[in-house]
Amino acid sequence: MSNTVVLKSTVTCPNCEFQKEEIMPTDACQFFYDCENCKNILKPLEGDCCVYCSYGSIKCPPIQLGAICC
């Protein structure tokens, strides 16, 4: 497993399909994300630790490294 972590993830809103590239935090999980297009507040899906794992193109840094997230 590589120790290279990708910090950019494209979040796709399930409500309006708006996409935006974001830089993921490395020191905390992000439980809420406000879609700037439709103003929907995204929360992680059941079984996911954060919005990036649920709606992002890349999983969060701890998951990328094979660790348990939050």
What does this structure look like?
The protein has 70 residues and is an alpha+beta fold. The protein is 13% helix and 20% strand. The chain has 2 helices and 4 strands, in the order E-E-E-E-H-H. It has helices at residues 51-55, 61-64, and strands at residues 8-12, 19-23, 33-34, 41-42. The protein has a two-stranded antiparallel sheet with strand order 1-2. A two-stranded antiparallel ribbon has the order 3-4. The longest helix has 5 residues, at 51-55. The protein is globular, with a radius of gyration of 12 Å. 21% of the residues are buried. The mean pLDDT is 92.
Compute the gyration radius: what is it? Answer: 12 Å
Tally of DSSP β-strands:
4
- Secondary-structure-derived class: alpha+beta
Widest beta sheet: strand line-up: 1-2
Helix run count: 2
Estimate percent helicity. Answer: 10-25%
Average pLDDT for all residues: 92
* Shape field: globular
* Strand and helix order: EEEEHH
Biggest β-sheet description: 2 strands, antiparallel
Tell me the distance between the termini: 21 Å
Proportion of residues in extended strands = 15-25%
Low-confidence stretches: none
Short description:
The chain has 70 residues and is an alpha+beta fold.
